[in-house]
Amino acid sequence: MLGKVIKHDLRASSPLYIVACAIALLFALAAAVNRAGHDDFSYLLLAPFWITGCTVAILVLVILFLVYTALRYQKSMYGSEGYLTFTLPVRTAELIAGKFIAAAVWGFIIWLLCGLLCFSILYGSIAPSITKEEFWREAANLWAMADLRNTLFLVVVTLFLSILEQVAVIYLAVTLGHLPCFRRANGILALVFYFVITFAEGKITDLIPMLSQDTLESSMNYLISLGDIIEFSRGLQVFFVPSIVAILCFTAVYLVISGVLVKKYTSLQ
Amino acid sequence: MSLLEIKNLEHRYGNHTVLAGLNLTLEEGEIIGLLGPNGAGKTTLMKIISGLIQTYDGSVLVNGAPVGIGSKSIISYLPEQTYFRKSENIRSAIGMFRDFYADFDEKKAMEMAMDLNLDSKQKIGAMSKGMQEKLQLIFVMSRKAKLYVLDEPLGGVDPSTRDYILHTILSQYTENSSVLLSTHLVHDVEQIFDRAVFLKNGRVFLNEQVDILRAETGMSLDQYFREVYR
């Protein structure tokens, strides 16, 4: 049943995401093609437009993903679609997991697209005097630095997992906002719970010495003062592993609590 | 083993007690009218049986098991509101029912949809509300369920649609299954009921075969309904 929940949830959210991703892809390609194919004058004329478009596209994609995830969850569980969702012969755990995995799939696609948009911004911003060959040679040089590469990988993984954690926070917030004791303003309550959970998570994270705000700030200041990108990236790696573990733990806890609440306190009154 | 066995069912909504120690046992092979005025707890009872409300006290057993995956796979529930996504088309909705319900007869559903001159690629959101309700009924009745739970299927529909709905229910219903149908339009449907369950003050006021009720009271079910809830 898990596979079927994933399949139908992906299908339900695909129309909006396909259009949004297609538009974002268009901006990414346009910025890159503009850099590669035009003479200096038209490049300078069009580059700001495409680069701004790419930047806006990243913001829009991320916000759209988070907002739409919340809306889909709310609608499919506590809106009119809930009358079908909760009468399906599916375990609550499968229901939550299926929705989460479907959201993760879209999150992954959007995250890939954001990566592509970032690259297009970078590539599209290079001055026309630098040739394509020079650009790729410089990129290859940077890629050859193992520490930099590893840090980049950790950054990318952490960002992706953070997106998934946000999905879990949203699920929990919406679930809390629709508990039977709250009979009105469920959407606003869900929003309040979202901020409360995020705030509480920040406080809990501060209790972990390696991830506390103070440690992070002082370490960052120290690393920046070194003035060496390799040392900087090597120093950053220390923070990412505990961050990833913390993110995974929080995500699992949020999903489990959501599942328990949905199972015990569902009430489509 | 009874198809539905409810003991001491209690449910509150805020400070309001909707169900107050309700007891009810239903066997298979009957069309049961769940009757009562607005606010009697018909919809709440149906939601509890169907698994939409978990917060209740008491025991609800469907085919001997508590409400859960097992009960959901043998109950076909028609709520008052339409639950399909507006952007979905009929084919996609059929695909969903086929995937989740082993007892769903896809061919029958498609045939019945074609009888209404519906195009399988037509978006559900583009249909009128009445047509959406008919479509939902088709889907619900295209399952070979043991218990059909139909919440006010006749509320707010025109007479021809009412006939269509009653015809669909009767033509799809089999002797191995039961239909629990809530309504306050007793006059229009009393001829199809085998049994009537009256709800009053959150409890079962009466649970009797309609023929016996008519013989004992000398009234039609509708007349008796009006007498009870006067």
Structure description:
Chain A has helices at residues 2-37, 40-78, 82-85, 92-125, 132-143, 146-177, 186-207, 213-226, 229-265. By secondary structure, chain A is an all-alpha fold. Chain A is globular. Chain B has a single domain (4-229), classed as P-loop containing nucleotide triphosphate hydrolases (Rossmann fold, 3-Layer(aba) Sandwich). Chain B is 35% helix and 27% strand. In chain B, strands 6-7-8-3-9-10 form a 6-stranded mixed beta sheet, sandwiched between helices. In chain B, strands 2-1-4-5 form a 4-stranded antiparallel beta sheet, covered by helices on one side. In chain B, a hairpin with a 2-residue loop joins β4 (57-62) and β5 (65-66). The model of chain B has no long low-confidence stretch (mean pLDDT 87). Classes of the chains: A mainly alpha (269), B alpha/beta (230). Chains A and B meet through α1, α3 and α9 of A and α1, α2 and α3 of B.
Features of the shown structure:
heterodimer; A: 269 residues; mainly alpha; 2 domains; 9 helices; B: 230 residues; alpha/beta; six-stranded mixed β-sheet; 35% helix; globular
Shape summary of chain A:
globular
Oligomer: heterodimer
Under CATH, the homologous superfamily of chain B reads P-loop containing nucleotide triphosphate hydrolases
Helix/strand-derived class of chain B? alpha/beta
State the helical fraction of chain A. Answer: over 70%
How would you write the strand order of the largest sheet of chain B? 6-7-8-3-9-10
Q: What is the domain total for the residues of chain A? A: 2
Shape of chain B: globular
Termini Cα gap of chain A: 26 Å
Please indicate the percent range of residues of chain A in DSSP E strands (runs of 2 or more).
under 5%
Number of domains of chain B: 1
Largest interface: A-B, 27 and 29 residues
For the secondary structure, the number of strands of chain A is: 0
